[in-house]
Amino acid sequence: MSTLEKQGKKFVQKTAGYEVKPHPQSDRLYHIEIDRQVIKDFLAKVKEENISVQHLEYTPYARRIVADYLLQLTGEGFQDVLRGILHDRETGGYTIGLQDETVDTDEYVIFSTALSHLAGTPNFDSMTGKYYARFTVGHTDNSDSYLRQAYRLFTMHTDGTFVDEPTDWLLMMKMKEENAVGGESRLLHLDDWKELEKFSTHPLATHKFTYKAPSSKNVGQEIQRATFFNDNNKPCICFIDQFAYPDTIDEAKYLKELSDSMESDESVVELKLPIGDLVMLNNLFWLHGRAAFEVNPELNRELLRQRGRFAEI
Q: What is the pLDDT of residues 241-277, one digit of tens each?
């Protein structure tokens, strides 16, 4: 019996504006399908009101306005569904998209902004100096992290490890993709990880490791973070292998064994995300990474990222 069947598929529903379905690739996720007419009306409203990406960047309240446009078209219950899924420990994630109604990447940014502001408030992204980040993955790369390196595994991690602010949720949207084979998003729900208890009860589980970001992240501070912490009496995780600075060999071995265990776990989901779709996850108990791409000199993928904190309810 799947996770969703065990809990009675509590968020599965169909309304005039959208339908919430079990996700075809994961028992832990939902897929939300917005009615095509709602999407057309949303994009038309944005155009009618002259809402541009630049306007969203320069005028923070406009981000809430586009969220309201979407809410008016889907119905007030839509926000409760989105927040309910993200807060629900049994699931904590969903995919959603624009149903091929547009290929305009500016409209992708606006749509993702509406969704993120229904969930809460995005954090400032120091890498780009905006509330969101757009970045490409191609054949060559000279960056100082694995984010843009196409041909190697981007290991399991959570976001926000090296910043001193809550990072409750993460949104990732596929903007463009050409000549790409592989590169699937790899996801692991903490409760599906076979060795969770082993690592979450280890003497180093609550040790505060130092995290330092590389220069490309534009974050100069050092942060001390415990790998495991409790939220609602359940273990949560804060971890990325690239930016942790252990002080001893034993600490380094703990982190390596933890990372190796997650990478090899049989419950890892390799999510196939179409262009114009996004996945939104609870960052406290979902880990994410990326499979390697097959080598292709013409490889080009562009992604959008937003991450932030939940609204006070």
A: 988 999 999 999 999 999 999 999 999 999 999 999 9
What's the whole-number mean pLDDT along residues 108-112?
A: 98
Question: Residue 234 in 3-state DSSP?
Answer: strand
Q: How far apart are CA 114 and CA 32, in angstroms?
A: 15
Contact 77, 15 (CB under 8 A): yes
Query: Domains in the chain, ordered, with CATH?
Result: 3-310 (3.60.130.10)
Hey, CA dihedral for 154, 160, 161, 167, is it positive or negative? negative
d(CA 166, CA 158): 12
Query: What per-residue confidence (pLDDT) applies to 1?
Result: 46
Predicted model pTM: 0.93
> What type of residue sits at position 109?
V
Average pLDDT, the chain: 92
Q: Which two tokens stand for residue 62?
A: 């406009």
**In the chain, where do the E strands start and end?**
13-14, 18-22, 30-34, 93-97, 120-122, 133-138, 154-157, 169-178, 185-189, 208-212, 222-226, 228-231, 234-237, 244-245, 269-271, 277-282, 286-290, 300-310
